[in-house]
Amino acid sequence: MAERVVATYSIVACDLAAGQWGVAVQSKFLAVGSVVPWAEPGAGAVATQSYANPRYGPDGLELLRQGRSAQEVVDELTTADDGRAQRQLGVVDAGGGAATFTGEGCHDWAGGRTGTGYAAQGNILVSAATVDALAETFEAASGSLAERLLGSLAAGQAAGGDSRGQQSAALLVVERDGGYAGLSDTLVDLRVDDHERPIDELQRLYEAHQLLFGNTPRDRWLPLDDELQAEVSGLLERLGYQTLDDWAGAANLEERVNGDDAIDPVVLRELRRAT
């Protein structure tokens, strides 16, 4: 059976201070997020594309768990693969080391570049400008790793992107115990499988994710004094709920409710909107 070409561009990166690793990817390919991005906190991250070898993902993470460097992982995976001439791969390791590989049989334009804490690569691109935009935007950006990855993805598209157009995009960021309820290592895992403007849709989904699962620093929460408590109680009564916990659970905002002495301003805003 012929292999499918995962013609795409991606950036694999880490934020060591935050303990996060991630991948952002876009392609003229259905559901690219099901093939390309792989990451594990404390180990590293992998993007596998072109005539993608999906085993590069789990096998690469296993090598990273063993303490191999990004370059060692790339060398071992590609050396053992008879189809390496058509593979493309990006890896970031536990220490922020990065490596990228583009087989000589990948379709033009194809190539990659690395820097501190990231590897950017793409194939069947309009030009090298896409990979340059990925790298330079990531280097210059501030904010969370997810935000930097999304910004890089958008810059890559603006610079030309996949020469065949757009179809799907994905964002994966991991952090030890950083996900839902502190019981998951998956901080962000968003996929747009088939869309005319997948990066725009991915950004919309990320904003929704941050609304529901983001974190407002506790020192920015509003004290529930008598006046604000009376307002919250009145809003809840109008909506038919007895407690803020009950309403937040129904609104999928339970991750933003903690105690009865203060309220997350995002929760208050959404409660007011609901009424």
Note down, in words, how this protein is organized.
It is a single chain. By secondary structure, the protein is of the alpha+beta class. The protein folds into two domains: 8-195, 4-Layer Sandwich (Glutamine Phosphoribosylpyrophosphate, subunit 1, domain 1); 218-274, no CATH class. It has helices at residues 56-65, 70-79, 129-140, 145-158, 198-213, 226-239, 244-250, 265-274, and strands spanning 8-15, 20-27, 37-40, 44-50, 87-93, 98-102, 111-115, 118-122, 168-175, 186-192, 222-223, 262-263. It has a six-stranded antiparallel sheet with strand order 7-8-1-2-9-10, with helices on one face. A hairpin with a 4-residue loop joins strand 5 (87-93) and strand 6 (98-102).
Walk me through the topology.
Elements (H helix, E strand, L loop, with lengths): L7 E8 L4 E8 L9 E4 L3 E7 L5 H10 L4 H10 L7 E7 L4 E5 L8 E5 L2 E5 L6 H12 L4 H14 L9 E8 L10 E7 L5 H16 L8 E2 L2 H14 L4 H7 L11 E2 L1 H10 L1
Antiparallel strand pairs: 1-2, 1-8, 2-9, 3-4, 4-5, 5-6, 7-8, 9-10, 11-12
Helix pairs in contact: 1-2, 3-4, 4-5, 6-8
Instruction: Classify the helix fraction into a percent range.
Output: 25-40%
Strand ordering within the main sheet: 7-8-1-2-9-10
**Computed structural class:** alpha+beta
Rg over CA atoms:
21 Å
Calculate the terminal CA-CA distance, rounded to whole Å. 56 Å
Note poorly predicted spans. Answer: none
Mean pLDDT: 95
Please name the CATH topology of the largest domain.
Answer: Glutamine Phosphoribosylpyrophosphate, subunit 1, domain 1
CATH homolog superfamily of the largest domain:
Aminohydrolase, N-terminal nucleophile (Ntn) domain
Number of domains: 2
